[in-house]
Specification:
It is a single chain. Helix content is about 35%, strand content about 20%. It is an alpha/beta fold. The radius of gyration is 24 Å and the shape is globular.
């Protein structure tokens, strides 16, 4: 076993304190989105990865959010807590628990029940009891959906909780997984990520995605340790470099296909590459445009089809581009091409799957049922792979 194949001492249970060495915005001014390119250094970790893998990151919560909760609890932050969820060997300070161990979002019915039992003001008690009534199930779900834990402390000040009581309601802060956007053949000591930074408002309060804003705003270049681990995946380019690849990756779903292209070019793969990319506007949201142009100019990318949804009155998506190129797509599949999808599971991946079935039925002269069977066989043969979230 060569040194590069030795397993690293760093795992999900013992993450590597990596340094962020690059943080740049990919969207141009005027974009409605904030998509960033991050580079994480693996130097000294012994970690290795392959195209198609993901990087797990343990974020920490925003200090301002932590301090606001401590303030509303009337606490100092030094109180020792041992949240049941964490199964800790010894209690830790409340501030540490709220910063690195517990999630501050997605409150549950349980906290509403506790606050109802603790409320001393009639108005607070009445509202909380009303939300817990059997007929208020949908109202409670909508109420909680708009709030984080701090909102409940703000809205029901008469319900006083101790630091331990509050901490017991919170769930564990989990690592976030991001598809890796680089190949170890080019960047053995680095991992590149393509991340949509989440910022929005609910209940008239600004909200943030914990991990995306940790990377964008709080992890200082070269300074803040970012706990990471590599999550190995079955998703990846074909082992046979002579095979063609069709890759569908709108938005940040483009990340693994940047890795695939780097990997296949570095390995001298002879198979053709066809990428479908979509986003809102060509002028501001064409992620890695220069790199794709370079691959096209060198003949390393056979086709690159784009769908910019907001550049015309009727929205156009990657599945629409697939249908427009149905005959050629079917031809590629018939000659053994691999088909990959990365990105949004709720809508895009379903729409792409439906488009694929329709193309196979139409161009292959099959019934819908036969097309479904054909797709199932592609999956069995590992020729249809998805990395969806």
């Amino acid at each position: 076993m060569s040194t590069s194949d030795q397993p690293s001492a760093y795992t999900k249970d013992n993450p590597f304190p990596a340094k962020l060495i690059e943080n740049r915005q990919l969207n141009k001014p005027g974009s409605a989105k904030e998509t960033r390119h991050f580079v994480v250094s693996l130097a000294g970790s012994g970690l290795h990865y392959k195209a198609g893998d993901s990087l797990g990151i343990f974020p920490s919560n925003a200090p301002a959010a932590v301090e606001e909760i401590i303030g509303h609890l009337g606490a100092t932050g030094q109180e020792l807590v041992s949240p049941a969820m964490l199964k800790l060997p010894a209690p830790i300070p409340l501030r540490e628990a709220l910063t690195t161990r517990l999630t501050l979002a997605s409150p549950t019915r349980k906290i509403v029940e506790t606050l109802a039992a603790k409320a001393t003001h009639d108005a607070d008690k009445a509202k909380l009891t009303g939300l817990l009534a059997p007929e208020s199930k949908d109202m409670l779900a909508a109420f909680l959906d708009e709030r984080e834990y701090v909102d409940l402390l703000v809205e029901f000040p008469s319900a006083k909780l101790t630091a331990q009581e509050f901490a017991d309601h919170l769930r564990k802060l989990m690592p976030r997984l991001y598809s890796i956007a680089s190949s170890p053949k080019l960047f053995p000591q680095e991992i590149h990520l393509t991340v949509a930074v989440v910022r929005y408002a609910t209940n008239q309060r600004e909200r943030i995605g914990v991990c995306s804003t940790f990377l964008a705003d709080r992890a200082l270049i070269g300074a803040t340790p970012t706990p990471v681990f590599v999550s190995h995946s079955h998703f990846g380019p074909p082992e046979d470099g002579a095979k063609d690849c069709i890759m569908i990756g709108p938005g940040t779903g483009i990340a693994p296909f940047r890795a695939f292209l780097q990997d296949r070019v570095a390995a001298g793969a002879t198979g053709r590459n066809w990428v479908f990319f979509g986003d809102q506007k060509r002028g501001t949201d064409f992620l890695y445009e220069d790199e794709w142009s370079d691959y096209l100019a060198k003949g390393q990318l056979a086709r690159f089809d784009t769908a910019f949804s907001r550049d015309q009155i009727l929205k156009v998506y990657v599945q629409d581009r697939m249908r427009e190129n149905a005959a050629e797509l079917w031809q590629w599949l018939q000659t053994g091409a691999y088909f990959y999808v990365c990105g949004d599971a709720k809508r895009m991946a379903k729409d792409v799957d439906q488009a694929l079935q329709d193309i196979i039925a139409d161009k292959g002269g099959m019934t819908p049922a036969a097309a479904i069977e054909f797709v199932k066989q592609l999956k069995k043969d590992k020729r249809y792979q998805r990395d969806v979230y």
